[in-house]
Amino acid sequence: AMFDNLSRSMEKAMRLIGKDGTLTAENMKEPLKEVRRALLEADVSLPVVRRFVKRVEERALGTKVIQGVTPDVQFVKVVSSELIELMGGGVGAKELEPGFPQIILMAGLQGVGKTTAAGKLALHLQRSKKSCLLVATDVYRPAAIDQLVKLGAAIDVPVFEMGTQVNPVEIAKRGVEEGRRLGVDAVIVDTAGRLQVDEDMMGELRAIKAAVRPSDTLLVVDAMTGQEAAGLVRAFNEAVDITGAILTKMDGDSRGGAALSVREVSGKPIKFVGVGERMEALEPFYPERMASRILGMGDMLTLYEKAEASIKEEDAQRTVERLMEEKFDFNDFLAQWKTMNNMGGMQMLKMMPGFNKITEKQLYEAEKQFAVYESMISAMDEEERTNPEVLIKSMSRRRRVAQDSGNSEAEVTKLMAAYTAMKSQVGGMSKLLKLQKAGTDPA
Ligand code: GDP
């Protein structure tokens, strides 16, 4: 099946790296070659492969080592992240651009599955309660018009056609007018393909595009295309500025390279994939799912994520411990607040007694409050900062701090209260941590 090779190569790469030490330029050399070879075999174009491998290497060297994660797993994680990135990032692409009606222009070479994809898209929209009109403009092949008419009948979507004797640009224009007249939510314009990229086809596409001003221009690409996919996508994107691609025949035994090239050469997302001949066989494209399908290493990545989460927790705990060990003056008060704002703030606060129900908004308020505290603490002299007792005892000192920091005396009083509260919380946390260490859950 598709990408079998790549997952086998990843296994080999992992064996080469092994479980000891860390990732280095040296021990990644062979594994990276392996990845490179596998991608080329999957028909990803050479420039795309080169850039990909380079990014993996840089990222792997720049990734901080996580305790409990062996370098081989770390390597898979980096490759996986870069694959997701290569295909457009973690979130699925926005399906279709808005429009009233949405006007979707289908572009692509002959035989790639463009007409089929037009029908699939119509069914997809219909299922999300959007009415459609299909427009047939391939005047060079009467069979293509018949095909669309039949597809339309099968899924109960009207098809607009004017036979083969009218200019395609005119048909497209009239088709969209008809769509407006009917009040449909979407008009899908199928166009003529050629066997190869040629100027006639691009010229016609440009003219149709100018005439109907589509919300989406989707390039239909056959997943079997292989190496040429990159050049093809680039040519169409330069000619008609596509908004995305539909990758067809993903159910076949293609080597899959096209999936990895679209985004890299055009900057545009793959929006859907065709996974069969039936009208239902269309799926939105999710880079994350695709990457895990390509690598076939889901378990490994789950392992990584668990280790990463537990490390974050440990970091937070360590901070709490530091917080308890230190003598607790205003400098500590500030430093701890800063730490909390910078790293794992939410987690830290949640570990504190009484703070476990904190919300984002409360946290924001807390941060704002902190800025006020900070201005007052900055206005203190060294003695006041390191020995809060002197402030608690002296009203004139508190007044001076208020004046110098531009706050009211009431704010200073509030700061003293916050300091005292945090100090006692530190005591509370100390107990909590000791209980945790002893293996007893206080809650
Ligand atoms: P067009 O010339 O680009 O309009 O291509 P067609 O829509 O006529 O499709 C060409 C052939 O590919 C037809 O036999 C389709 O049934 C087939 N086809 C289209 N999409 C898919 C797909 O996702 N999977 C498979 N297996 N076949 C497909």
UniProtKB/TrEMBL annotation:
Residues 269-282 form the SRP54-type proteins GTP-binding domain. GO terms for biological process: SRP-dependent cotranslational protein targeting to membrane. The keyword Ubl conjugation does not apply. The keyword Ribonucleoprotein applies. It catalyses: GTP + H2O = GDP + phosphate + H(+). It comes from the Eukaryota. Keywords: GTP-binding, Hydrolase, Nucleotide-binding, Ribonucleoprotein, RNA-binding, Signal recognition particle. Its EC number is 3.6.5.4. GO terms for cellular component: signal recognition particle, endoplasmic reticulum targeting. One of its GO terms (molecular function) is GTP binding. Belongs to the GTP-binding SRP family. SRP54 subfamily. This is signal-recognition-particle GTPase. It comes from Astrephomene gubernaculifera. The chain holds residues 78 to 520 of 561 of the full protein.
